[in-house]
Design goal:
The chain is 74% helix and 0% strand. The protein has 189 residues and is mostly helical. The chain has one domain.
């Protein structure tokens, strides 16, 4: 996933530079449309990378999940059933599979990673709507609205997935802790 996003950034930057060169050289309206489309896409890809890097540099997947924001809300289980999260959750790509692998991480570490991923994706969803502010300047409301709303919806899916998984990880963590406590209390033979 990382490689795809970084390669996309390079290709989008090159394409944007070429489209702008053609537009400023010829004044062709089609080149401006291509430049706007590539610029919007470049913003969405670059912003995702930047938000992820900034949050990760601060928390390193160790965000405490004890705050009220991270607690499961009463309506969430019904919402997840309505959205059928269990059916589509396996189709979403993972940025770094090792961050979410129970064979390599403890449930507590995974809980921190899910909290961080939720914050990243929620922030990205909000920032995905920012290009809508460019409609008065550039026009093209369809392009700005469709890309912004679609991008926000995709990132909300990732945030929902983190919230969906966290209660399960909390239960697993509690079970493992209880097992360790019982094992520590057994009399030695």
């Amino acid at each position: 996933m990382k490689r795809i996003l970084y390669c996309s950034m390079a290709l989008l930057t090159a394409g944007l530079a070429a489209a702008l060169a053609v537009f400023f050289g010829t004044g062709a309206g089609a080149a401006l449309s291509v430049a706007i489309t590539l610029g919007i896409t470049l913003y969405h890809v670059g912003m995702r990378l930047l938000v992820g890097l900034c949050i990760d540099s601060r928390y390193h997947n160790r965000m405490a999940g004890t705050g009220r924001w991270f607690q499961e809300k009463p309506f969430e289980r019904r919402l997840y059933r309505l959205l059928r999260v269990h059916r589509w959750k396996g189709w979403l790509p993972t940025w770094e599979k090792a961050f979410f692998d129970l064979r390599k991480r403890t449930p507590a570490e995974l809980i921190g990673a899910t909290c961080q991923a939720e914050v990243v994706h929620a922030l990205i969803a909000l920032l995905s709507l920012l290009p809508v502010a460019l409609i008065p300047i550039w026009g093209a409301p369809g392009a700005f609205l469709s890309t912004s709303v679609a991008a926000a919806a995709v990132d909300l899916m990732f945030a929902i997935l983190q919230r969906y998984n966290r209660p399960r990880l909390l239960r697993l963590s509690k079970k493992m802790q209880q097992r360790q406590e019982r094992a520590g209390q057994r009399p030695s033979a």
